[in-house]
Amino acid sequence: MMPIIEFRGFSKRNGDFRLEDVSFQVEQGYITGLIGPNGSGKTTLIRSMMNLVRPDAGEVLVFGDSYAFKEREIKRRIGFVYDEDYFYDHLTINEMRKIIASFYPSWNDSVFHSYLKQFGVPEKRKVGDLSKGTKTKFALAAALAHEPELLIMDEPTSGLDPVFRREVLSIISEYIRDGERSVLFSTHISADLERIADYIVYVRNGKIRFTGSKEQLLDTYMLVKGPVGLLERMKLPFAGMLQTALGFEGLLPIEHYSEELTGAGVAAERPTLDDILVYTQGGK
Fold first, then answer.
1. Are residues 14 and 71 in the same domain?
2. What is the pLDDT of residue 46?
3. What stretch or stretches form a coiled coil here (predicted)?
4. Tally of domains in the chain
5. Are 108 and 100 contacting, i.e. CB atoms less than 8 angstroms apart?
6. Out of 11-20, 29-38, 260-269, which region has the weakest mean confidence (pLDDT)?
7. Which domain holds residue 249?
8. Beta-carbon neighbour count of residue 113 at 10 Å?
């Protein structure tokens, strides 16, 4: 099956920061999470998927096509929920709807109104009067209303209360159920990705550090804890570690873990995505 998004040798410089020779794929029919610390290049990658950023080298293919030849066709097949507000604050939601709908031949008003009702978004309110969370709800309703094949979301659950965050995750999971639709989801709330993501792309310092299934990434390390005295005796090659007077906690590559460690007084457990982000972000 053809990847829904493909980066081939993508490079982009922005001041002192550079994304260097980035190559990865987003698989069709799945939810892919894009993770990494602040300033790692996530936003640049997402903007490039929408052709809002052009590469200095390499290319980005969406649906197997290049924006250089089929920009309008590609964008009509994408729903986009971005972290920043890109609506006109002086317009009402209904007025904004008319503008957005004009760009999509497949726009479905009944789907749009159904989501607004489900989300409790008032159509007659001006966009500028809405809270950040309500604007996100409106953006999600608009993104889904033209029934896109690909949903690209940048921090969609930031500013949302936990109840609605859970509802958004359910909507995303339902959206891909037919196996034909795909989601690229970037967020700092790694617990959301842990709940619904199938694949993970991990970017740090402008380079791709991991791309593969979520389970594969979680199985790459063990989170180990123990008393400080064990550190000098064991000399473990941690990917990252936190030490206090009471003990240590660190991320150990799975190939260096053995059951003998637990017999020596070390507690071990499978890490979360958050653990992996925290303990590996200091690497080069």
1. yes
2. 93
3. none
4. 2
5. no
6. 260-269
7. 220-281
8. 16
